[in-house]
Design goal:
Order of helices and strands: EEHEEEEEEEHHEEHEE
Strand order of the largest sheet: 6-13-12-8-9
Number of helices: 4
Strand content: 25-35%
Number of strands: 13
Distance between the termini: 63 Å
Helix content: 10-25%
CATH topology of the largest domain: Immunoglobulin-like
CATH architecture of the largest domain: Sandwich
Length: 209
């Protein structure tokens, strides 16, 4: 609580679900409620209710209408979403093979071909932390393979992909523990490239209870 104080700066805070978001005793001194553009101000959970016609300012995640607190205080660059912003993720896709997995199969691996958006190179993927359903790592046999032997264009779409392989029996046991038999299942692959996270999914059919 501040009393009889002015020229303070409040920004990158979340004011959520309060009967009165900010309370001033009389008189209300002038303070600063944003850090300018494009840094922004604060997130106000009642913003859209108060300003239903407001729009995003130049794709910045900031509203184009100030949030007025009183005659001496307003947030000129209110945030559209709570602070801190969600970390960006790389846009990625994957093709998981086989498309149909027989739980009685004795094969060695499940293969995935991962593609990244144009801003990232698949050679930047850290294979050591790639996981299938946050449980199964890349098979150790494939971790030390030279990149030139696992990078290609599996689907001939002109986009380079990285091939990773997971132990098939480990995947089968995982599916069994989850009670997944004779059904379609969506598998997720997570990892990082240049320190940026990505998550891709693909759906396969499971048979052979």
């Amino acid at each position: 609580m501040l009393s009889s104080s002015s020229d303070n700066k409040f920004y990158h805070n979340n004011f959520e679900n309060n009967t009165q978001q900010v309370y001033f005793s009389t008189p209300a001194y002038a303070n600063f409620w944003d850090d300018g553009y494009p840094s922004g101000g604060n997130y106000w959970s009642d913003y859209e209710e108060r300003y239903p016609d407001a729009e995003e300012l130049d794709g910045s995640g900031i509203w184009n209408t100030p949030y007025v607190i009183d005659e001496n205080n307003q947030d000129n660059y209110s945030l559209m979403n709570p602070w801190p912003p969600a970390p960006p993720e790389i846009v990625a896709t994957a093709d998981i093979i086989p498309n149909t997995l027989n739980l009685k199969s004795k094969g060695k691996w499940i293969t995935a071909h991962i593609e990244l958006s144009d801003d990232y190179n698949v050679s930047a993927i850290d294979r050591a932390i790639v996981m299938l359903n946050n449980t199964i790592p890349v098979d150790t046999f494939w971790l030390d393979k030279p990149f030139e032997s696992v990078i290609g264009d599996h689907d001939d779409d002109g986009i380079t992909d990285l091939m990773v392989k997971f132990d098939r029996q480990a995947v089968i046991e995982y599916l069994k523990t989850k009670g997944i038999t004779d059904a379609e299942v969506t598998l997720a692959i997570t990892g990082e490239a240049n320190g940026m996270p990505f998550e891709v999914t693909d759906t396969i059919k499971v048979i052979g209870q």
